[in-house]
Every structure is written in structure tokens, then in C-alpha cells.
Design goal:
There is one protein chain. The chain is an alpha/beta fold and 382 residues long. The chain has 14 helices and 13 strands. α1 packs across α14 and α8 crosses α12. The chain starts with a strand and ends with a helix.
């Protein structure tokens, strides 16, 4: 048997759950051919938190300040020594900061192939970052956007990113696992403390400005009197809670908008909602939207590039990003529908999900890319 391919996945911070993109990549590599190590630059799991499915998990326990300024060079040296001593064949770096660090180190790690996974849009809006990436990217690199929109962004921003070294692999979820986790509507509402007989528009996401919750609340304020049986329910926690609570109070919606806080495995509660909303101002390719489709719920989202192609394909509704009036108009159309019409939209979305975001295709595509990069490095080694 040929020697195993040694793979390192680098993540900026500890964040492990079964639907995480990095964990899904690992799931596709759990064969005798690969030995996978996961490295977290920051953080580590608590006593009751899950660990990566990789054979080994390494925690550098770096602080936020360790990745800035002069301290960054010390972190780079530690990372270089680790990679040099381990002799990885392929390094998969997730998100901007790990990609940037490995681009510098790739000049020294001559026998390694590199895959950078870009999760979102906006990281290369700074000229210094564009210059760095164009200068450092080499023939042993391949950049993956998690959606077609992310790929187009990368190609438009960074001259060093080209059609030959940049591609996209659509983010995906394990649909069988997702549907197996889902609670039925009554049980989900019961666990969340939501009423059974009301129509609920819900969303899942951290309470931070980029998720656009303020737009959703402002849009609902325009409709609340017309639809007295409708509630807004938001699963998530974050620094914007106080601002959102103040906005709810400003519109007199304290009994109509429920901030539910963070819930472990929030996916299981998707069927608590009659309509799933994603009012984000920016996204890569959000798993929450795919999870809503797994729950056969009609979806509405902002018309940002990473969402609009999905919404068009899954029979969803889109509105102009950040425009509460437009969101109110689109939401009104959904709230005016019969239950049977909403069910039909949910079923259409599920069919789209199965056709376009299969986890089996996702894993296969990463395996094929990894094999291609291993062969490429083998051909270029001295």
C-alpha cells in the first residue's frame, strides 16, 4: 500500500460542530489513504464540547494579540517549525488569516501543497492584502471559494488569483443527518417556548450587525398591525442584543419579536418557523439557509451575491439588502399565502438542495482537488 497522505487543516479558532465545513472535509478523508491533523490557532474545547473528527487535534492556544504586529512573527515561527517537523503533504487553510500565514510559510515549505478555503466576501478589499496575496501565491497553491459568488469576488479583487488556481466548491450539508436531527414543529416550538398556533418568521444567526436583524425588525414593524398573529423569532446571541432590544421597544414589538438566545444545534429547531428569513448584509455561503431548506421551509433573504443565486434556484424570495421597505413588501406576499402554498415552496427548496448542495459531491470534490495538488507537488519536487 502506498504511504498515507498527511493532511493538515488549519482553523483560526476552535469551532467544532458536525455541520462545519472543515469537519465535512475531514469526513470525506476518513480512509486509509489519508492521515488528517486539525490545528486550531486559538481556543480549545471545554469539558463538554466536541472535538474534531481528525486523527489528531492540536491547539496552539494563541491569543488575539499573538496574530498581530511583531508577535505575529513568533506565531509564524511556531507554525513553521510544526509544519516542517511533521512533513505534511497538503495544508488546507481556512479563512483569511491562516491563508495569509501559510502563504508566507509556503516559501519555506517546498515539499507541501496548499489549499486556501475562502469562506466569505470582503477580506481582500484592502490593497495591502491584495498585494500580499498576489506576491506570495505560487504554483503549489489553489484557492477555493465556498460559492460561485466568493470565487467571482476573489477573481475580481486579486490579480494573482486566476481561473487556473481558483475555483469554487459549493458549501453543503449532510441532508440525511440534517433531516434526522430536525424536531417536528410542535416539539421545536415547545422547547423554544414559542406558541403553537401563531405564524412565525424565524432566523438563525449571531446577533451582530452584519446579520441584518435590524432590517428584519424594521420591516416587521411595517406589517405587525396587519398580521396580529405573526411573531418574529431569532435564535442567536451576540454583541448587538441591547441595540436590537432597543429597536424592538422603539417599535412597541416587545410581545411580537422574541430573541431566543443561543441554542446548541440550532438546526433542530428550523421547523419551529413557518418562514425562514436571512436578512444578512454579507455572507459567504450560509449553512443556516441550507439547513432551512432541509427543513422544507420557504426562505427569504437579501439579494447579496452569495444568497441571490440560491434564492432564485430554490423558489425563495429576495429583497434589496438593507432595505426594510422592500423586505416588508416581499414578506407581505409570503404572509398572505395559504399554508399549502408555503408548503409547496418549502418542498421546491428541498428538491433544489438535494440537487445542488449534496454533501457527497462536496466531499468528492475536495478529495479530487487534494489528489490533484499532491500530484502537482510530486511533479515539481526536485
Amino acid at each position: 500500500m502506498s504511504k498515507r497522505i498527511k493532511v493538515l487543516q488549519i482553523q483560526l479558532r476552535y469551532n467544532v460542530n458536525a455541520s462545519d465545513l472543515a469537519e465535512q472535509v475531514i469526513a470525506g478523508l476518513l480512509t486509509e489513504r489519508y492521515g488528517v491533523t486539525t490545528l486550531f490557532l486559538r481556543g480549545r474545547p471545554g469539558p463538554d464540547e466536541p472535538v474534531s473528527a481528525a486523527e489528531r487535534s492540536i491547539y496552539f492556544d494563541l491569543g488575539k494579540s499573538d496574530l498581530k504586529g511583531l508577535k505575529r512573527w513568533s506565531a509564524l515561527l511556531k507554525l513553521y517549525r510544526f509544519c516542517r517537523d511533521e512533513g505534511f503533504d497538503v495544508v488546507i487553510a481556512h479563512r483569511f488569516k491562516p491563508i495569509s500565514m501559510m502563504m508566507w510559510l509556503s516559501k519555506l515549505l517546498k515539499r507541501t501543497a496548499f489549499i486556501g478555503v475562502q469562506h466569505g466576501i470582503g477580506d481582500y478589499d484592502r490593497r495591502a492584502r491584495v498585494f500580499e496575496a498576489s506576491w506570495l501565491i505560487g504554483p503549489r497553491w489553489h484557492i477555493v471559494g465556498v460559492s460561485q459568488a466568493v470565487k467571482h469576488y476573489l477573481l475580481s479583487k486579486v490579480p494573482g488569483f486566476t481561473e487556473s488556481n481558483t475555483s469554487h466548491i459549493n458549501n453543503a450539508i449532510d441532508i440525511d443527518r440534517a433531516t434526522g436531527m430536525l424536531l417536528d414543529s410542535r416539539e421545536a416550538r415547545s422547547r423554544l417556548g414559542l406558541p403553537q398556533e401563531r405564524r412565525i418568521v424565524g432566523c438563525i444567526g449571531r446577533l451582530v450587525p452584519v446579520k441584518g436583524h435590524a432590517t428584519l425588525i424594521a420591516a416587521f414593524a411595517r406589517l405587525a398591525a396587519r398580521y396580529p398573529d405573526v411573531l418574529i423569532a431569532i435564535i442567536g446571541e451576540g454583541r448587538s442584543r441591547e441595540e436590537l432590544e432597543a429597536l424592538v421597544a422603539e417599535h412597541g414589538l416587545q410581545e411580537r419579536v422574541v430573541l431566543l438566545g443561543a441554542h446548541h444545534d440550532a438546526l433542530q429547531y428550523v421547523r419551529a418557523f413557518d418562514i425562514f428569513a436571512m436578512p444578512s448584509l454579507s455572507e459567504g455561503l450560509p449553512l443556516a439557509l441550507l439547513e432551512a431548506l432541509a427543513g422544507q421551509r420557504p426562505v427569504i433573504g437579501s439579494d447579496i451575491p452569495s444568497l441571490v443565486s440560491i434564492l432564485e434556484g430554490c423558489s425563495g424570495r429576495s429583497f434589496q439588502v438593507g432595505n426594510a421597505d422592500d423586505l416588508a413588501r416581499q414578506l407581505k406576499q409570503l404572509l398572505s399565502m395559504e399554508d399549502s402554498q408555503l408548503q409547496a415552496l418549502g418542498e421546491a427548496g428541498y428538491a433544489y438542495l438535494c440537487a445542488q448542495h449534496s454533501i457527497h459531491d462536496f466531499r468528492k470534490n475536495y478529495r479530487q482537488l487534494l489528489e490533484k495538488m499532491v500530484m502537482l507537488v510530486g511533479d515539481t519536487r526536485p
